[in-house]
Amino acid sequence: MRRTELAFWIAVAVVLAGLTVPWFLWGSATVVAGLPVWLWWHVGWMGLASIVFWRFAQRAWGIGIESTGDDGSGGKRLDRPDRAREPRTGGDSP
Fold first, then answer.
1. Residue 74: inside a domain
2. DSSP category for residue 4
3. Is residue 67 part of a domain?
4. Contact 66, 77 (CB under 8 A)
């Protein structure tokens, strides 16, 4: 399960990084609402990347760096406790 999740997030990162620069729009002089279409691409891509990063931070932060040694942790994540058990006290989340 963790390996497939790790592979998924690696693939997402590669796609996000690969399509950051809109190579297919180079040389295009198309203008939408007074701005070049490549600029709209960057605005939209930054919005998408921020949503994906937020989702990654909520679900998979620390994936791939868990301890796998025989330290008694049973392969559990050591970077933070289970979020379901954390009390919600309000304020900013870490």
1. no
2. H
3. no
4. yes
Tell me the mean pLDDT in the region 65-69: 62
Domain of residue 46 covers 1-23+31-62
pLDDT computed for residue 87 by the predictor: 58
Quick check: 46 pLDDT over 70? yes
Residue 92 maps to a domain: no
pTM given for the model: 0.59
Give the pair of three-digit tokens for residue 30.
Answer: 């198309």
Instruction: Count up the domains in the chain and report the number.
Output: 1
Q: What is the DSSP string of 6-71?
A: HHHHHHHHHHHHHTSS-GGGTT---EETTEEHHHHHHHHHHHHHHHHHHHHHHHTTTTT----SSS
